[in-house]
Amino acid sequence: MNQSSNSPITKAIKELAVTSLIQNFETIGDVTLVTAGRNQFRSLWVRDFCFCVPALLKLGYRKIVKDQLELIINHIHPVQKYAPRTLDSFPTKLRILLNVFKTAMRLPKTWLSPPLTWRLKPEYLGEHCTPAFDSNILLALAILTYVEESKDKEFLNKHSTVLEDLMSFYQAFFENHLIYQPAFSDWQDSVQRRGFSSYINLLFWVALKKFYHVTGSNFVSKDFFHSMHHHIIQTFLNSDQLLKTAAHLNHISIDSTLLALNHDFFDPVFDPYRIWQSLVHSPLFQDGFPYRTTYPNYPKKEIAWTVRLIGLSHYHDELCWSWLIALTYKIAQKFSDSNVTRRIEQICFPVFLDEKNIGEIYTFKNDTIHPWKNGYLESERPFSWGAALWVEAIP
């Protein structure tokens, strides 16, 4: 049975999502910050935090959002003008390796789990020597979302130059009204995706739209804004009216189409409901459940050796991400698709309640989900990004 937002189980899931998010709050002195997770991701991952901002504001944590935005802004690279991937007082890569060791040796997760201190250092480049290429857009969106909700014009005025720098960073990467990205640099950073991706270009278009809505001014000309929309459609929309993950691949990823539907990208050129139906009947779904991220699996040559080494080759294709399941649930409600909401409730809610948290990634098998794990690593839990999207998804 489809649960209403007032049903006991839906209320329990909402409370669980809130608790999962709060469990990743770290207090340093009189400042509270949000880490991405409690174990291998117990760092201030910028991308994850930015995706959490709407939920944090919805829950009334305005000061936390403002403090963490200020912290990230203060650590934007002084020359290159890109946001850090993460901030941590313990080496981020060592924190991840430490958790690999603990999992392999079956040690308690609480053993040697260094908390954050004020000796925070930014990490700008990942293991492939590339920045988190989407973080500038996401940070700009987070700033604009905070200003829109808080009406904090003083904050906007103080950081107006920062906001413009964050957006201007991409000018050097534009080719024919689309952004060309480095390899292993967006949220699907286990995959090369070098070139034109629908995710990055869609996000930038959303940021341009939000920039005008919040500031009342255009960052680019209206002609450029409309031309970018046209080029995204022409480059990525396939014959099934779904967004391909990259211009050079025929793969489809659930992230881009969901984000496009969430931000009314297709209106009024295409019928959003028809696109939603196309998505639900695509190979990304099984009987109304979004059971994978990308279809088909990425070619081996596209996948980073680092994730292959620890048995996570299918990190961004076969596995289910909690934030994408939550976003699917939200969009299903937008289109009054009770079949999809019911399937998600039937499959996910019992697992979330049994695990007592919202985790990062899950495997789908025998009509249920299981927190991903192997002999070296386990799905992060609680996972802030996933928890935050569930806070948003449940009314």
Give start-end ranges of low-pLDDT stretches: none
Structural class: mainly alpha
What percentage of residues falls in helices of 4 or more residues?
40-55%
Can you count the helices?
15
Order of helices and strands: HEEEHHEHEHHHEEEHHEHHEEEHEHHEEH
- Whole-angstrom Rg: 20 Å
What can be said about this structure in brief?
By secondary structure, this protein is mainly alpha-helical. It has helices spanning 8-22, 46-58, 62-73, 92-104, 135-150, 153-158, 160-168, 198-215, 222-236, 254-262, 272-280, 305-309, 322-334, 338-355, 384-393, and strands at residues 25-28, 31-34, 44-45, 86-88, 121-123, 174-175, 178-181, 195-196, 252-253, 285-286, 289-290, 294-295, 320-321, 361-365, 368-371.
Describe the structure.
- With 395 residues, the protein is mainly α.
- The chain is built from 15 helices and 15 strands.
- Strand 6 and strand 7 (178-181) form a beta hairpin.
- Helix 5 runs parallel beside helix 8 (198-215) and helix 13 (322-334) packs parallel to helix 15 (384-393).
- The mean pLDDT is 95.
